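Hello,

Our lab assistant flagged a job as stuck in the queue for most of the afternoon. It eventually completed. Since we weren't sure the result was trustworthy after the delay, we are filing this so someone can double-check. Below is the sequence as submitted and the structure that was eventually returned. Let us know if re-running is recommended.
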Amino acid sequence: MDFSWLPEPGSVLAARYRLISLLGTGGMAAVLMAEQVEGGERVAIKFLHPAVAAHAESHQRFLREARISSLIQCDHVVRTLDAGTTPAGLSYLVMEYLEGEDLSARVSREGPLPVALAVDCVLQAAEALALAHAAGIVHRDIKPSNLWLSRRADGAPFLKVLDFGISKLAAQASTDPSLTETASVFGSPTYMPPEQIRSAKRVDARADIWSLGVVLHELLTRRLPFEGDNVGGILASITADAPMNVRAIREDIPVAVEDVVLACLEKDPARRISLAELSVELRPFASATGAASADRVLSSAAGAPSTWRTRGSRVPPATGASTLSAATIRMEPGPVRRARLTKLVLGATTVAALGVAGWWTRTAPPVPPVQPATTLSAAAPPFVVPASSASLVSAPASANAPALASSSLPLTAPSGTPRGAGKHVPSTPKVAASAAAPLPLASATPAVVAPKPPAGAPQVSDDRR
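-- returned structure --
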């Protein structure tokens, strides 16, 4: 590849940066390692390719990266320190220097990542995206090669999100349509959501969530969820096919982690998981570093304007839609699947209960008419309460009256009563049945029956009660 357009190593840029060596190249730019003339701190300098710089739109996007990166105050976004143009007309950005490698190189070299490391990487990227989305910025090109993995001083994995060059500012999209032309190619096709394939300028923050789901799938399996023989086949699969299940490729992946991948890859953006939900569900599988990022995502998302629906408020199916199949329910995330199955069970139980109630109403014998109330003395023989009565008799305790619990009075129904009547409660004393006349009950309130006062006791008139 021809790098003759780049400044020579050893030359000094803008009297502040001494160029050292080439770090890497891409389709639009090349990156060189340099050091500050004063202090000797290492930096990375990104030069825009002259052929690309000839297009005004591409040049604007390149310079916009510096401005957008400065708007996102997050440790997981690469910092842009300076920007300018060389005397030869080359545009450049000065960024912090990073040790390590991008996730694409890591997976290509070592294969699928351990679950904890993959989850940590996704949660740290989610932390950066949550702050970007809160500032009205959509990245639109999340992929493993734009996620740089390095290490902290203590050896913990530390991820940086790169390349906000094609990101979208929500406020700018309506004032500068030239920066969001539909014909322009945004992002990498294999990581695009269906809505971005249809129209690149109408995507919102939910597009980044889709891409993050594709990244998590690839980190865990080294495979993409949608595959094809060529770019057209991949795009067709993204828009029409169900994603490849993670556990079909790697059985040791927890079901809850696979559920998160599937929830990110909902084709309808309104049904897609949010960053806050993603963080809650992935947190149990992360290290302490990833868990801290999950907590910060929740804090950032709480103050950000919501542009997506959470799974708790999913859009119901359109009128006339067919009943959900078991396969459809299986594709739901874990909590959603459990909630949906619970609703189905409760619905079936309710329908069955209503059917039984209707049958009982039609077949149950009529309730006998209520007779005038009578009194019951303390010495009265045991009595029988008809099974069809709906109320219980409550007798106040006295020295001469047996103690009976009004809420658990054991009943013995005479023969011939309807099925289910006269059930015995074993925790209370039995009351024997006799041939005595049954005690009628009031229809509105239970009758309170007092024992007959002993002979010679003073009488109390009704108006003193």
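-- support follow-up --
The delay was a queue issue, not a problem with the job. The result is valid. Confidence is low (pLDDT under 50) at residues 169-185, 303-333, 373-449, 461-465. The domain at 1-97 is CATH 3.30.200.20 (Phosphorylase Kinase; domain 1).
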